[in-house]
Amino acid sequence: MGRWLRWGYGAVAAALPTVAPTAAEPGGFGSPAPPVFGKDFRISGAAALSDEIGAAAAWNSDNNDFLVVWRDGRDRAGGRGYEIYGRHVGADGSVLGPDFRISGPAAVDDEQDPGVAHSATSRQVWTDGRAGTATDIYGRRVAAGGGC
């Protein structure tokens, strides 16, 4: 069964289908508009009170869950810039545990452009400006239950 995600601006939000549509159904595979089922639900946690942007998601068929990652501005007031956060989301759209910071403590500038591959141990990559003169690509492994 396929899964579709859409992302809201501000808080990271998604909508997942409850049933996979057929080509004959409105919004089905043959439709020019992407099918969206169910209500939006928030993925970024309650502590995410600033901009959450640039979300990416990957599916893990072994665990039947998504790892959703995004650029998060909750620590900008403390002078850290944007950080990379993530959260596991079940196949039914339920959030699995709290959201968690992925970019490490040495990442003190703006981290952006998150990308993710999700398997037994996920890989997360992002663009990082910690060098001060140019951006580099950094990455980190994420445990199946969250955390790095």
Helices and strands in order:
Elements lengths: L12 E2 L26 E2 L9 E9 L4 E8 L10 E8 L4 E7 L9 E7 L4 E7 L7 E7 L6
Please tell me about this protein's structure.
- The chain has a domain at 43-142.
- Helix content is 0%, strand content 39%.
- It has no helices and 9 strands.
- Strands 3-4-5-6 form a 4-stranded antiparallel beta sheet, with no helix packed on it. It has a 3-stranded antiparallel beta sheet with strand order 7-8-9, with no helix packed on it.
- Residues 1-13 and 15-23 have low confidence and may be disordered.
Question: End-to-end distance, in Å?
Answer: 30 Å
Instruction: Let me know the average pLDDT.
Output: 73
Number of contiguous helices: 0
- Structural class given helices, strands, pairing? mainly beta
Largest sheet, if any?
A: 4 strands, antiparallel
Spans of at least 5 consecutive residues with low confidence:
1-13, 15-23
β-strand number: 9
Note the overall shape.
globular
Strand composition percent: 35-45%
Largest beta sheet: strand ordering: 3-4-5-6
Listing every helix as H and every strand as E from the N terminus to the C terminus, the arrangement reads EEEEEEEEE
The residue fraction in helices comes out at under 10%
Radius of gyration using CA atoms only? 16 Å
